[in-house]
Amino acid sequence: MAASDMLKFTKIAQDYPVKRDAEERDDDFLEISRPYITDKAEEQSSRCSQCGVPFCQVHCPLHNNIPDWLRLTAEGRLEEAYEMAASTSTMPEICGRICPQDRLCEGNCVIETSGHGAVTIGAVEKYITDNAWENGWVKPIGILRDRSHRSVGIIGSGPAGLTAAELLRRKGYKVTVYDRHDRGGGLLTYGIPGFKLEKYVVGRRLKRLEEAGIVFKYEFEVGTDATMEQLRAEHDAILIATGVYKARALQAPGVGTGGIVKALDYLIASNRKGFGDDVPGFDDGTFNAAGKRVVVIGGGDTAMDCVRTAVRQGAKSVKCLYRRDRANMPGSASEVKNAEDEGVEFVWLTAPSAFEDRDGSVSAVRGTRMKLGQPGPDGRRQPEPGGEDFRETADLVIMALGFSPEDLPQMFGTPELGTTRWGTLRTDHKTMMTSLDGVFAAGDIVRGASLVVWAIRDGRDVAKTMHSYLMAKDAAEKVAA
Q: pTM for this structure?
């Protein structure tokens, strides 16, 4: 395809990859979309208008060179397209799968605003990177210079930690990653279901990092297996990239009843079962929705992961209660549509107020109908009581109300580690360093629960500031000598 074949959005309609039928996909954890064939990827890339000011790139947290790799794809230059995508992102195939493109790049596509339908950016990003893996274009991590006299410790192996680990290893530093779980990837591995992100995709990224000499120490609890002071003595710089895992609680009568579980506990159990692990909480029915009337409370992407997981586990019925309406929902619109296709019922403008129990196990959710008031600081209209009471029968209730930071100063035995009033770690905005010299922080533990793509961005940024810190340390020691 020649370069003159771009700007075809007036002649070629938007066409996303075909989804497997809901009846086919609702009992497995495989990804729901079939991959593009080459001709289709080239065709859809050719719709790009090659804007002088590409709003897709502006609204991407990584500022990916989207128009450039769309053009290269349209011209059949896939390896170059991959190299362009990988120049700004350490995980393009993961972002292509799980980024909410409808709120970021595609939602700001110029031809979308003109009524022609956005370029299918995420699907093309996934396509070119998957092809890169299949064709051997994803090369081993190259070490630019041997700086192994300096050592970096990274706490947390989610997207922020893994991104920083890769970029610092490229610089030549010794890198050790510590994680509390028995596998790397953080929420990429244990929080996101396979129908959105199959686990081999994360696994091959981890393997590439291991082959580059990055050391992973799993089932490692900072504060128990080693103190923060011990880690600081062992490494020249530390990065805290733990994410936020503490479930937000709902204060209501009956909230401690059996059969009411936290979203992340539920998703971790499901993902572990998919790995073939021994999961007592799943086997005894605590985290298994089979044959149950399931109610999920919440409206974010985690809630969507829960309702769609419950469908695949064989739930009798699945309902999602959310206190706002569809237009004011924080989750991805495409995920809501996928859930509806799979049989999930959304009960909008509802807020739970109590839980009924029968013989110690939840039997129903009681609550109040809501109405929307004036917009809040985030621009979404605020819910307020506005109607009659309601009651939903339930055998399993999953609380997906979001996440807050854990008390890291207490967990790590480091009370001098500064935090904000929200419990996130306080950092210098320029250096990303915490109140402890040589200890940096990035990702959700700094910004609060956010998107994977923002964690990758933070990991990229903190790798630069940590490199500057270590270079300055080298320079100071040379002067002292």
A: 0.95
